[in-house]
Amino acid sequence: MINKSYKKMLEGKSIIRELSEYATARGKEIGYENVFDYSLGNPSVPCPTGYTDAVVKMYQDKDPMAVHGYSPSLGIEEVRAAVAESISKRFGVPYEAKHIFMAIGAAGALAHAFRLVTEPGDEIIVFAPFFPEYTEYIGRTGAVMKVVPPRTEDFQINFEEFQHIINEKTMAVLINTPNNPSGIVYSEETIKQLADVLYAKQEEYGHDIFLISDEPYREIVFDGKQCPYPAKYYDNTLTCYSFSKSLSLPGERIGYVAVNPKATDADILAVIMGQISRGIGHNCPASTSQLAVSQVLDETSDLSVYETNMNIIYDALVEMGFEVVRPGGTFYIFPKALEDDANAFCMKAKKYDLILVPADNFGCPGYFRMAYCIDTEKVERSIEVFKRFVREEYG
Ligand code: PLP
């Protein structure tokens, strides 16, 4: 017998992946340069040369036994120390190597964080709009995902609804800033208010509530700003990071969980995550990826193209009359569709080879997401097509 619940997942396959596969197939028919594919959040700029150099040097100069051996279950010690030093310096939180757990991307980091702080039946609160894979990431742990509806005027946290939803069964709250899909960066005020609520609720319920902060887009921020670092404001924070986006390395599958040194049982949380790995087989990220990223921890790819693209698209959407909040980071924008049914809207756009993702399973029906990690030249060409689509379908 095949596991029923996993088999059932075939009925709800990722809409993002489906649209991306459609765009690739369509590209084979008409040339991919003619498909305006805004579906997938795959970085469009190369990783820094420092990363490639580190890889080449490592393969040429290092002992193959060290480079290709199993890594320790919590990650390579010198890599953990380097990560701790880098983020301590950048964010002013005094991490040590023992607080860092190396993981397979943000997906792997989250898989460990959820299991670390919940038992089946416990609740994890998520704020809409959210990355749709959260539904499966959380659902498969046995924990229950509770969704706080969006505050669509600015996509900051809807505190009124949050206060209604948080309860004694809440063991964790998951945030993602800068946010996929809205592109919004939570303000310092939002993070502080969130911390205040969580401290008060810990007191009231008499148990820890962990803040799980999913931060793969931390470095992709616009207007020369910085993203407030949530762990600075709340002690029980598990920061889940990935090098997929900032260093354009999604295929290398590398990231980490950073345990706030002031969290409850901070000294043993990484060790316990090593045990979780044994249970889920999501263990020992590639030694080569760990060693290479540790050489470029304070670098990023040239991320400027995302801001350029955002400005072009945002201005064009406003000009066309869309309701849209200007993103503060990431490579996503999240406008309101021109009809209530965003699926119908995106289907119509598809006829123009404009691939947009409807947001029903991002917890925000009526909206759509554009991933603008594509060449600026293509973004510019897509605007004319977008205008024609809007004129002909909704004019
Ligand atoms: N969290 C968010 C918000 C994402 O957008 C993604 C990927 O797009 C992930 C987690 C998973 O990232 P990774 O590729 O590092 O596993």
UniProtKB/TrEMBL annotation:
Limits of the Aminotransferase class I/classII large domain: 52-385
GO molecular function: pyridoxal phosphate binding; transaminase activity
Keyword Transferase: yes
Keyword terms of this UniProt record: Aminotransferase, Transferase
EC number: 2.6.1.-
Annotated InterPro entries: Aminotransferase_I/II_large, NHTrfase_class1_PyrdxlP-BS, PyrdxlP-dep_Trfase, PyrdxlP-dep_Trfase_major, PyrdxlP-dep_Trfase_small
Domain of life: Bacteria
Cofactor(s) demanded: pyridoxal 5'-phosphate
CDD domains on file: AAT_like
One Pfam family linked to the record: Aminotran_1_2
Family from the record: Belongs to the class-I pyridoxal-phosphate-dependent aminotransferase family.
Protein name (record): Aminotransferase
Taxonomic source organism: Pseudobutyrivibrio xylanivorans DSM 14809
